[in-house]
Recover the amino acids of this structure.
């Protein structure tokens, strides 16, 4: 189910791939060589919302996790001496608010809790024709589509699996996913 990302090395003269690490992750992003060429730092993990910093030794490709927390990491760069590196650490609290009839003074924060960092990108929320709210949350560990009423109750997870799901648009429900959808529209809405 789904693809895998890995770090690949290529000879600049010929373009031929050099045998290196066979390690894969559902998501891999930035890489940076250590100055002494003894390894590569890699941003990778189960998804963009939970990516950590890893070290791949060179030339054997053995991996070691450098960070181990609930944050996500984006970019990285090392110092010329190789004794330090910097990275962008992404963490945050993202909630859903409803503003009745456009009156900001009456805005109500829904009791959904933190719906997850990745939900802050793209269009993570929309109204259904029957007045419910479709939204993206990583509460289950992956970026999934959820549904709730306007009070923030009767929450229902609509997608499952390791896919990166974003941008729910109900009428009928469609969304962007990097892996196959586990439920059909008829399974979600009945009929």
């Amino acid at each position: 189910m789904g693809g895998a990302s890995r770090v690949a090395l290529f000879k600049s003269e010929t373009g031929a791939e050099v045998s290196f690490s066979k390690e894969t992750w559902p998501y891999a992003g930035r890489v940076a060589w250590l100055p002494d060429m003894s390894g590569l730092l890699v941003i990778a993990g189960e998804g963009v919302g939970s990516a950590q910093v890893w070290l791949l030794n060179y030339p054997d490709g053995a991996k070691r996790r450098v960070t181990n927390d609930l944050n996500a990491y984006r970019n990285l760069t090392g110092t010329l001496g190789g004794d330090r590196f910097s990275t962008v650490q992404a963490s945050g609290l993202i909630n859903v608010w409803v503003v009745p009839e456009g009156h900001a003074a009456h805005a109500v924060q829904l009791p959904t809790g933190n719906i997850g960092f990745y939900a802050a990108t793209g269009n993570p929320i929309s109204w259904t024709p029957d007045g419910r709210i479709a939204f993206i949350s990583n509460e289950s560990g992956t970026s999934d589509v959820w549904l709730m009423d306007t009070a923030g109750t009767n929450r229902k997870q609509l997608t499952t699996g390791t896919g990166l799901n974003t941008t729910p648009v109900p009428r009928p429900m469609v969304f962007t996913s990097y892996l196959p959808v586990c439920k059909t529209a008829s399974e979600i809405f009945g009929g």
In short: The longest strand covers residues 27-33. The mean pLDDT is 79. The chain has one helix and 16 strands.
